[in-house]
Amino acid sequence: MANEYGNGALTPPEIKVPDVRHPKTAAGGVPAVWSSLKHAGRKMGLFRGVKTLLKVNKPGGFDCPGCAWPDPKHRALTEFCENGAKAVADESMKAGVDDAFFAAHSISELTGWSDHALNTAGRIAAPMIREPGATHYRAITWDEAFKVVGDALRALPDPNAALFYTSGRTSNEAAFMYQLMAREFGTNNMPDCSNMCHESSSVGLTEVIGIGKGTVTLEDFDHADTIFILGQNPGTNHPRMLTALQAAKRNGAVIVTINPLREAGLLRFKHPQELRGIVGSGTELTDLYLQVRINGDVAALQGIMKAMLEAEAADPGQVIDREFIETRTAGFEDFRAGIVARTWDALEQLSGLDKAAMVEAGAIAAKANRLIACWAMGLTQHKNGVANVQEVVNFLLLRGQIGRKGAGPCPVRGHSNVQGDRTVGITEKPSAAFLGALEKRFGFHPPSAHGLDTVHAIAAMDAGKASVFIGLGGNFLSATPDTEVTARAMSRCDLTVHISTKLNRSHLITGKTALILPCLGRTETDMQASGEQLVTVENSMGVVHASRGGNAPASPYLLSEPAIVAGIARAALPESALPWAEFVADYGLVRDAIEACIPGFDDYNARAVLPDGFELPNGPREGVFPTADGRAHFTVHTPPAHDLKPNEYLMMTIRTHDQYNTTVYGTDDRYRGIYGGRRVVLINSKDREEAGFAAGAKATLVSLFRGEERIAPDFLLVDYDIPRGSVATYFPEANVLVPLGHKADRSHTPASKSVVVTLRRSE
Ligand SMILES: Nc1nc2c(c(=O)[nH]1)N[C@H]1C(S)=C(S)[C@@H](COP(=O)(O)OP(=O)(O)OC[C@H]3O[C@@H](n4cnc5c(=O)[nH]c(N)nc54)[C@H](O)[C@@H]3O)O[C@H]1N2
Ligand SMILES: Nc1nc2c(c(=O)[nH]1)N[C@H]1C(S)=C(S)[C@@H](COP(=O)(O)OP(=O)(O)OC[C@H]3O[C@@H](n4cnc5c(=O)[nH]c(N)nc54)[C@H](O)[C@@H]3O)O[C@H]1N2
Ligand SMILES: [Mo]
Q: What is the tally of structural domains in the chain?
């Protein structure tokens, strides 16, 4: 499927051949400290860098724009990690993307740059427009920019022809104003990065425990005696979690990891801020490592639970929590019958694990009194992502491990405010209660018909049904599946608008008219009419707290996200009676509105600035399940089977240690031992040999889906410790191979961790 841009424009081929060394067996230590300082020093200057990093995650400072892992209550001098430091340094770059930059580089020239090179150009300095047919962007004023957006929105025949995408760095205040604008405009078309991320967790958990969030707090890690980590690579993506895991280990907790790769960060951790982390050998983290095959988790969990049920049968009353099951749950008998019906042979084959390993994990879980199960994209981005999550809940319910101190489900969120954005109304499926509250507070009638999520938004643009795309943050083109289809879809739009901090590929593959609206980042001072503003965010564990930037803005022409949203609202809705200007002058008024519309935000302004913020209500955490019958539900799932033919593999697309989603900081994946390149496919050497490829050969990857072929050339084959039939590539290079129609049941999360591919010889 070629398009007018050709594959190269979407993901430029690599010049350099990656250098492959031994994967590491520990995370952190001196290399992590060195890497933080290198990024901070190079991008901010060492003095400003250190000064900025000392404010990360501190009361009065700003929330790290990295991941959503919560902050500990007893803060150390430094409260950031290597990859948080990279995120901060990246945002603190100089504003190199200005009028002169775009005059010197045409859009078509920039499409030939790598993602790393685009990011290295620095912060965006001023609003930019690409007019129909123009070869270059040029700077325009904010008033002109807002007029272009307002005119395009008002010209639409139907409000549902507009799409309002959000990425999860946006603050609660900006997100609430954004959804308010979209709904006053008349649509619930609010695709969100979480559609591609933890949507399977939100949908799965809501169905069975009544809330779409995890139930554990950071303190629960101090009490846990057992932690299961499934489909997550915290050493790279949530490095501060390693500190919590290390503390849990020192308290005697047992850790079981389920992952196709032996990730360094899960093997051993050397705390970079402890002397013993610098000179010692670190703390061993995982006690039992189950190298499951990709998408083998339902089978693995069923094997573990089968072992638990067999142990219970042998010694009744010792393993499962009968009382909890009888009084607090529903569906146990059907669930039990389903597990009993599975044969060990089938479970071994589908999980890729030996019975003995599943029995060992079952024995650990059978003894656990306070068990936390953590997971991330390795569970959610599959066709059966919702089932994966619900199987984890089954596993927890067996011994009543929800609503108890030191226990519970812990989906570890990605973007630093992705959970908060959802809480304050960024959703294509709003509840009637929320819409009613908006109507009561603001006096307009919000639309109730459900809107489009990410996958369906792409299809709508491609079909010409949606023609104005606005992105509040993010990099829609590169983050979404099926890059060539998405490129075609976006280029069919009349107008694409990106509210951004840094240049990315979505600015280059655009609608007929395109705007880049540059905004302040988390680290920067936000001065408005009533004085300096703070914003609020919610972390992965439901704690809401303030974030206040302290650096001078990268350019005098930047506006805050709330100011940009209000500017668009006033241009698109000139008759609006909503207090847009007042909101911008004082974000406290936005928080008052959130408090009036959403339960749990009582006394928001006062509580947001408490040193530890405040916790949102979470029924299941207290043992109360807000489901229709007030019970938690066991569910029955069939383990997925993949009928792979010779030279076919299940491919997962994962992150390297040197990127933040589509932002590529560098070309190394230090822990996995891959340096200087990203177009690699990690493969079991026996699979490579059977397919007839020499070590170090290159291959073309072809994805096979419903008779369609998608092609990505020039991937270096890297022999790796990975189960047979499973291969790994990096996101976003491999997104061209992820079919748009290949998505999770019910949550519609792109199944970007289970793409069937085959290897062809490179030309
Ligand atoms: N530095 C940095 N931090 C980040 C990000 C970043 O890009 N860079 N991204 C942020 C975001 S938005 C998110 S959502 C999170 C992502 O955090 P993760 O989910 O940890 O990120 P991925 O690289 O997608 O890694 C998925 C892990 O799941 C494993 N896996 C893949 N398929 C399967 C499977 O079928 N079963 C099992 N059991 N395991 C599997 C992979 O081997 C890998 O270890 O991180 C957040 N934090
Ligand atoms: N194949 C494959 N695809 C995936 C995934 C995968 O594992 N595999 N993971 C998915 C996941 S989990 C996610 S969350 C999505 C991520 O999807 P997105 O959130 O859309 O992508 P990001 O790369 O995080 O967005 C980066 C851009 O955000 C802008 N930005 C950064 N900070 C700010 C800010 O403070 N304000 C504003 N307005 N803009 C800012 C910058 O311009 C930067 O270029 O990708 C998904 N896509
Ligand atoms: Mo994510």
A: 3
